[in-house]
Specification:
heterodimer; A: alpha+beta; 2 helices; 4 strands; B: alpha/beta; four-stranded parallel beta sheet; 35% helix
């Protein structure tokens, strides 16, 4: 499995449902095991990314917040 | 950099395997802007979550699927009159309340842009990119005299209620 982030997605400023929709589109191009890093400012993306990972099975590896920017690192699992 | 774990009531959840086939079927019956909009929000999100997603456009809901450059649809004067009073196309949708002769939709569009919320037209494109199936209702097309060439690109061939109900078997369904 790859340990480095292969795709960085800047979704700052976008509102629901675009952060999830654009992440779902971007993850399609990746290989299983690849990591994608997403930056968002929508506060709703915190619970939404957790729910999305639960439903799709992709793994939420890391999430942090810096000055209102939420950073999610997700591993594609299938 | 602070972790946001403490702000959340639920910890990071382990992936759950859903054994059942997940489907989402939305019946878009209304052509109102404030109803088509959530239909596309839910449709786009469902497809992003890996759900097999279909939106069935029927009655007034069919009009937003008509191309914006088509001003009048219909074959006879009554159908044409219907389109004249209810202009087709997603750019011409009205609000179910506070429409104020188009001022309401214009203001809502402006607010949406200021808040970087996706407009219905953008969501329609996202939905198509994510593989949402857009199904026009055959009976509504006949009723309003709307032809396949009046509709936007990327919609499927028209179907009847039976196809829609077959797709809805075991699916999460919404009537909006």
């Amino acid at each position: 499995m790859s340990a480095t982030v292969v795709k960085l997605l800047d979704l700052r400023g976008l509102s629901c449902p675009l952060p999830i929709a654009k992440t779902a589109q971007a993850i399609r191009a990746l290989a299983v095991g690849d990591l994608i890093e997403v930056h968002a400012t929508d506060p709703g993306s915190v619970p939404d990314f957790a729910a999305w990972c639960t439903t799709t099975g992709h793994e939420l590896v890391e999430r942090t917040e810096t000055d209102g920017v939420y950073r999610f690192v997700i591993r594609k699992t299938r | 950099m602070a972790t946001i774990e403490a702000e959340l009531e639920t910890p990071v959840q382990a992936p759950i395997e859903h054994p059942h086939h997940k489907k989402l079927v939305i019946m878009a019956w209304s052509g109102d802007l404030d109803k088509i909009w959530p239909s596309f929000i839910l449709g786009t999100t469902g497809a992003a979550m890996g759900m097999d997603t279909t939106i069935f456009f029927t009655f007034w809901g069919l009009f937003p699927l008509v191309r914006n450059d088509v001003h009048i649809t219909g074959e006879n004067w009554m159908q044409k009159m219907m389109a004249f009073m209810n202009r087709p196309g997603d750019e011409h949708m009205k609000l179910s309340k506070m429409n104020f002769a188009g001022m309401g939709p214009a203001m809502l569009g402006q607010i949406a842009r200021e808040h970087h919320a996706a407009l219905p037209h953008e969501l329609m494109e996202s939905a198509q990119e994510l593989g949402v199936r857009l199904l026009p209702c055959q009976m509504s097309m006949d009723l309003f005299g709307i032809k396949a060439e009046d509709l936007i690109e990327g919609v499927d061939a028209p179907v009847g209620a039976t196809t829609m109900l077959e797709l809805a078997q075991g699916a999460t369904t919404f009537f909006i």
